[in-house]
Amino acid sequence: MARSVRNRPCPNPPCDRGQLSASDPFDPSLLTPNAYAVGQVGHDDIADAFAALWTAERKLLGQAIPIPANPPVDQLGLRMEIWR
User: Tens-of-pLDDT digits for all 84 residues of the chain?
Assistant: First the structure.
């Protein structure tokens, strides 16, 4: 049975980001407008994925900057920050 990730079917579990690793190959063709059928993925989803990829690469290279520089924490102790 396929799992659902954010209300979309996941045909080949695991489909959560926690299961990905640095050794997983990245295919740049997945970011092209015609890589998915119309209605399968929104253009905003591709933009979000590219932003996450860009930020992850900058963090890996030590170039990412947290905003704000000294972020507050929420009631669970999680840092409330955005990376760029």
Answer: 344 445 555 555 555 554 445 555 666 676 676 767 777 777 788 788 888 888 989 999 999 999 999 999 999 999 999 988
What H or E segment, with its residue span, contains residue 83? strand 82-83
Four-point Cα dihedral 42, 46, 48, 49, nearest 10: 140
The candidate with the shortest Cα–Cα distance to 13, out of 3, 21, 25, is: 3
Q: What are phi and psi of 8, to 5 degrees?
A: -120, 140
Residue 84's nearest CA partner among 73, 72, 68, 75 is: 68
Q: CA 65, CA 55: separation in Å to the nearest integer?
A: 9
Residue 46 one-letter amino acid? I
Structural domain boundaries of the chain?
42-84
